[in-house]
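Sharing a chain and its predicted structure for anyone who wants a worked example. Both blocks are below, sequence first, tokens second.
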Amino acid sequence: MEILDDVKEHIQLTLFDFVKNDFIKSPLNYIGGKFKILNQIVPLFPKNINSFIDLFAGGFNVGINIKANKFYANDNIKYLIDMFKEFQIRDVKYTMGYIEKRIKKFNLSLTNEDGYKKLRKTYNKEKNALDLFVLVAYSFNHQIRFNSSHEFNNPFGKKRSHFNNTMKNNLYRFILKLKQQNVIFSSKCFQDFDFDFLEKNDFVYCDPPYLITTGTYNDGNRGFEGWNEKEEKELLKILDNLNGKKIKFALSNVLEHKGKKNKLLEHWINNNPNYNVHNINFDYSNSNYQTKIKDKNSSKEILITNY
């Protein structure tokens, strides 16, 4: 598809913008994304990082905001990684122009569900990575969801979701920042990631699905690996092995959620007194954290580090 050279730029981004704005936000509304708590967790990361490994990249909110010499972004959802690769290799004008062309071709809007379904059918047949982003822009809650046959099946976001100015802004800034980074993308299960090349100045960040919560990203019914005690134990073993090799890591997780406790994680922490547990205020309702933590529906978010 030919994209016009004079496609209108939605955002003018300069180096000053990067300095003025503390963090870049992913254009994806990814479940469990860490954008809201970056100001709490990033200061806890090592100051001098050679290779940064984002083992469960998701929307890449964390990795896009880290200073390092090299980046490895991994997620087991191949189609998500394919999208990031397109953002990385395509000129930003091409990407923005392609999106506008697809919106026009399928007459996408807040109310045209038929156009959305036609694009969804086209994507599921052709698997064009940029089409996936256009779908996400108009899908319910901007979510990424696949069925067991790896067909995108998120419903239409009627009267709620569209490619609005905020999403355009986030996408434009995200792509330009991504092009400044040296990122190697992969779509492996975390158990298959090769950690052998890591050295003492490298850093592994893990934001896995949470054992005591269940969502479309970890229920195991979407054609991708689910998350249960087996996976949790395997990850904790990997982190222990990294610790034994003097490789620094940080793990995001929850100890409590809606009255449930992650006893497996709690036991692991108690058996490793050299690991540090940092309490995170993940406040979704702008209420006082100490009040919220008493709520039976609250979550006790933590960051665990081995340094």
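Comments welcome. The chain has two domains: 15-77+182-305, 86-169.
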